[in-house]
Amino acid sequence: MGKLTDDVSRLHEEIIALRNARKSLMADLASGASRLSSAVSGLRAEFKNKTGEVCGSARDSRLAFTSGLKNSVNAARQQMNSDLAGARRAWFGPSSAERLAGERRKHAAAENKRLQDERKRREEARHGMEAEQPRETHQTHHKAATEKKHSAGQMNLGSHHPHDKKGKK
Questions:
Q1: How far apart are CA 16 and CA 12, in angstroms?
Q2: Whole-number Å distance between alpha carbons of 108 and 100
Q3: Is residue 55 part of a domain?
Q4: Could you read off the pLDDT of 99-157 as tens digits, one per residue?
Q5: How many domains does the chain have?
Q6: What is the spatial distance between Cα 149 and Cα 159, in angstroms, rounded to a whole number?
Q7: Cα(53)–Cα(66) distance, integer angstroms
Q8: CB atoms within 10 A of CB 159
Q9: 125 is in which domain, residue-wise?
C-alpha cells in the first residue's frame, strides 16, 4: 500500500495547492476588476465631457446648416411658385381673384382721386371766400355789437353778456 498512499498524499497536496492558487487568482481578479471599474468610470466621465463639447458645437453647426438650408429651399420654392404663376398667367390670363383684386385697386384709386379733388375744391372755395370778404374776429364782432347797443341805448346793465336776457323788463 505504499504506492497508493503516496499517490493519495500527492493528490491531496495538489488539491490544496490548487485551492490556494484559486484563492489568490480570485483576489487578483477582484482587485483588478475594481481598478478596471475606476479606470472605466474615469474614461466615461472624460468621454462625457468631450462628447458634450463636441455634440454642442456639432449641434450648433447642424442647426445653422439646416436653417440656411430651409431658407434656401423656401426661396427656391417661392421662386418656382412665382415662375409657375407667371407661366399660368401667360397661358390662361389672370385668375378671377387677380382680376377682382385689380378692379378693387382701380376703384380704390378712383375713390382716393375723387376725395382728393373734392378736398382741393373745398380748399379753393374757402380760400376764394376769404379773399373776397375780410374776416372778422370774435372780438371785433363783439365790439361792434356793443357799440351799436350803446348808441341805441339798449345796453342791459345787469348782464355781462349782450345776449343775456336777465334783468330786462
A1: 6
A2: 12
A3: no
A4: 899 999 999 999 999 999 999 999 988 887 766 555 555 555 566 666 666 565 544 55
A5: 1
A6: 13
A7: 20
A8: 13
A9: 94-133
